[in-house]
């Protein structure tokens, strides 16, 4: 009884949601992706820097190029998912910072003038946003299949540029037959949380 | 209408939730933290590796040591929040992998025998889990104040060890007076999402 969130929402986002390995043919619409973004964009990032970028791979030609860059185990899923999204971090996010963090516009120059600092911050904060995005996909009643098994430099070269760091690739759609393994165990509270 | 998630849940987790800079005195109980963990532990990670570790700073002595390691702007918040949690990545997560990913116990040796590979994977996946954890705090009706402005090596030395990478520190509690600035703008859909 310690949670305020409605139990049906807990199930939808966490307990009944699963990483899907197969999908139905039902398309994922532009409206669904917009609704997901319009929800998860409010998730917090440092200085509201919002560095996550999303590349939707919709054309058959682009899909074919991407599948070739996936690991052997991931290629068939990426070939058949209704929608595939490349999540990346924008290492030049500081250009938007005066607009995104208007009560301290100096943050751009005070904290983010060095590229290496920006890359670290962009990767950390865009990965946080990837967590929000995965839950947002579930909030739309869809299943997400996030993957890190792919050729990072290949994806950067084929789909992004030197200012973007690929983080993960997410298959999105309605789960198909035999979409998942049985739920794997989780660590117990005492294995994860310590008190000092 | 593209989202299935109940609008009240959308508000609780994203639209009305805000990063709090002040808190009331109301304590955050062990039961609340357990309920948060028991929900967010189901969020997906690669190979179910679940590398996030949480250090709850509850004793006044530990709090004092931590406050000294926070940046000037963050120290007062960390001094007064009802609860402060250090989130870190366990770079030795692979030891638990045969139990956590029982349908492919070879993953431990096949993918994670190198420390550098483990560190990258642990940081990425624990950061994803940090995103789930922040939303879990909100699911408990509490406000989160995630921060990256602190002495990382100092926190590692004082509270963790060489096998753990500090990711962020999160103040947790009920929001106090003037807990936040006005909501800052977010990037438009077309600034974030492109289609190929």
UniProtKB/TrEMBL annotation, chains A, B:
Its EC number is 1.-.-.-. It comes from the Bacteria. It holds the Pfam family Nitroreductase. SUPFAM superfamilies: FMN-dependent nitroreductase-like. Its cofactor is FMN. InterPro entries: Nitroreductase, Nitroreductase-like, Nitroreductase_HadB/RutE, RutE-like. Belongs to the nitroreductase family. HadB/RutE subfamily. This is Putative NADH dehydrogenase/NAD(P)H nitroreductase GCM10010238_12870. It comes from Streptomyces griseoviridis. The lineage of its organism: Bacteria, Bacillati, Actinomycetota, Actinomycetes, Kitasatosporales.
């Amino acid at each position: 009884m310690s949670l305020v969130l409605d139990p049906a929402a807990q199930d939808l986002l966490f307990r009944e949601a699963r990483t899907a390995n197969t999908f139905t043919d039902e398309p994922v619409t532009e409206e669904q992706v917009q609704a997901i973004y319009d929800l998860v964009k409010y998730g917090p990032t440092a200085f509201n820097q919002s560095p996550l970028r999303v590349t939707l791979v919709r054309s058959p030609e682009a899909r074919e190029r991407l599948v070739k860059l996936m690991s052997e185990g991931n290629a068939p899923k990426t070939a058949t998912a209704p929608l595939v999204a490349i999540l990346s971090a924008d290492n030049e996010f500081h250009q938007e910072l005066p607009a995104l963090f208007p009560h301290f516009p100096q943050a751009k120059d005070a904290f983010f003038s060095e590229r290496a600092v920006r890359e670290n911050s962009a990767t950390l904060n865009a990965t946080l946003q990837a967590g929000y995005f995965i839950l947002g996909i579930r909030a739309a009643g869809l299943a997400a299949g996030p993957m890190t098994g792919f050729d990072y430099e290949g994806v950067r070269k084929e789909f992004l540029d030197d200012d973007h760091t690929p983080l993960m690739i997410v298959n999105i759609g309605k789960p198909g037959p035999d979409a998942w393994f049985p739920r794997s165990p989780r660590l117990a509270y005492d294995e994860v949380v310590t008190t000092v």
